Amino acid sequence: DYDNLDKIIIGVVGGDGIGPFITKQAQRVLEFLLKEDVKKGRVEFKVIDGLTIENRAKCKQAIPDDILEELKKCHVILKGPTTTPRAGDQWPNIESANVAMRKELDLFANVRPVKVPEENIDWIFFRENTEGAYALGSDGIRVNDDLAVDFTVATYEGSYRIIKAAFDYAKKSGMNKVTVVTKANVVKTTDGLFLDIAKDISKDYPEVEWDDWYIDIMTAKLVDEKRRSQFKVMVLPNLYGDILTDEAAEFQGGVGTAGSANLGKKYAMFEAIHGSAPRMVKEGRAKYADPSSIIRAAGMLLDHIGYTDKAHRLQMALDICGDYEKKLVLTGRDNGATGAEFADYLMETIRDD
Amino acid sequence: DYDNLDKIIIGVVGGDGIGPFITKQAQRVLEFLLKEDVKKGRVEFKVIDGLTIENRAKCKQAIPDDILEELKKCHVILKGPTTTPRAGDQWPNIESANVAMRKELDLFANVRPVKVPEENIDWIFFRENTEGAYALGSDGIRVNDDLAVDFTVATYEGSYRIIKAAFDYAKKSGMNKVTVVTKANVVKTTDGLFLDIAKDISKDYPEVEWDDWYIDIMTAKLVDEKRRSQFKVMVLPNLYGDILTDEAAEFQGGVGTAGSANLGKKYAMFEAIHGSAPRMVKEGRAKYADPSSIIRAAGMLLDHIGYTDKAHRLQMALDICGDYEKKLVLTGRDNGATGAEFADYLMETIRDD
Ligand SMILES: CC(C)[C@H](C(=O)O)[C@@H](O)C(=O)O
Ligand SMILES: CC(C)[C@H](C(=O)O)[C@@H](O)C(=O)O
């Protein structure tokens, strides 16, 4: 619990491409909101450089050792997008830094809320974040020219803790409804385990209604405007969570509008879920990149470490400026205003609050 | 090629639940359209009973040997929905009959068209149908109480032939656009192979534009009303195909509206993509089940074996009756008319054509 800490250390990881530019703006906003607490020594920011694709490629590590050590000295982390090497491009076959960080810091719960108030949509996804199709990362086996194998791994503990977290949240929040999403009719061993555990856990939550659907049907159900608002808390193995949350975010305005919380027992990491947009950097337009998604992630971070009120004020300012942003075409794509100007405007809005 | 055959044998497999009821109606419609050819001995129907969950459970086989033998005597198959055993329910851990049939008859291409004319959506999905996450079926490994593993398998040949089929179709149809969907940033070995092969094949089709996206982002892109009609031919590994086609069908009116062609070098199987609805049978309402989806599949079958004109006439009648059906609430759910009455009405509509 953060209340018992003398000092909360917030790591700030810029990442690749536009990452350092937008992360910098999110840090400014956090510093603005936490000014007093920084002065009192309650909060400290620690900028961690070097989690770049060039550096990772040089070390041939998804997260170089010295950076991992730095990360482990923080209590919570705000992370910009990191470039993931693609099969066949110029980088070595290293794992995504995102995926590696989730595993190394045991951030087992990827929690992604999606809200569309006009439609009564209030979804919260609990995506398992450390195993499943992601467990062995780059370590599939290319048996020979003709044959390739990848592995999906589920453990009892890994499945248990994410499902438990979803049921706990459903109960605590009063949503009282959990939907378990698997493909247990085909991926029978790992997803079968996941579903069995869900059945067991559900017995301890008589007040929480629950159902289960296969991922294929679930992607269709989210499209169904008449019925989709019935879903509340959803819990899914890693890959299905990856897929379904991107679809879901689109109803809210796109992945650019969604922040993502990666939570573990010891650490927590908050990130934007869009990419590093290397093209913007190449074209010299990085300073125009829209920082609103990572600022939303910063808001989730504030809430997580106990600054509920500040998180709320930031959220309100973001909602106001988001509309403003749309109206005045302040987005990076149109070069209307820089990320720094957007952050300035946002801070003024908070100040006036 | 079917033109060179003396006689085309059409296998009709009822399956489970409402399957035999709706398949019967589809067979009536086919017999009506092919009356002359049946008389001349050009076409023969062969009803294959016993592909039921009870029988499969008794034999502990996804497809009992004697039924498989019968299936192999047919040239094309019309198949009703079959119940897939669920982890933990009363059935033994056998594979889905669908999945087994695709593998046993080597039906490597699952082709699913989705059209929304008002929106200019004209998608056609080429789903790899025999390997990927489906390769080993029930044969994951439950290492111990704590650990479960499933396997994803891709072969060069398996990936090659489905990607080639997609590019061929894109070229032949004049669509000239292929989108390759993988998760090669995480499932690096098998999806990496798939993407590499796509890159190679694309070189032989200079006139076909192509791009590639990850499955998570792709589910979001299909939601984007402004841009989704840009997609034409899509080709995907098995599991992503399963997921994305269900989402896509929803824009067209739901899985109930989509037929599915499972094509191989030697055999072809056509099916509805909805389930067996055991509850309707239990409640004595099976005769009210809506047969329009399997009749659509029957239309794809007609087209496939060379009866293009008859397929077209059936399609037109279905479109007319589909609207009528909606208006007069003829669907099974509402017990407005039986499946047989719907088929009667449909045949009258064709006759009047
Ligand atoms: C970049 C990629 C490896 C990552 C994932 O697959 O988890 C991303 O899609 C996400 O959802 O955070
Ligand atoms: C029933 C199930 C095994 C099947 C699949 O996963 O392929 C179905 O969803 C489909 O798309 O035909």
Automatic annotation (TrEMBL), chains A, B:
Keyword field contains Oxidoreductase: yes
Example of a GO biological process term: tricarboxylic acid cycle
Gene Ontology molecular function, alphabetical: isocitrate dehydrogenase (NAD+) activity
Matches recorded under SMART domains: Iso_dh
Gene3D superfamilies xrefs: Isopropylmalate Dehydrogenase (3.40.718.10)
InterPro entries documented for this protein: IsoPropMal-DH-like_dom (IPR024084)
Domain annotation Isopropylmalate dehydrogenase-like: ranges: 9-346
Keywords recorded for this protein, A-Z: Oxidoreductase
Family, per entry: Belongs to the isocitrate and isopropylmalate dehydrogenases family.
The name this protein goes by in its record: Isocitrate/isopropylmalate dehydrogenase family protein
Organism: Iocasia fonsfrigidae
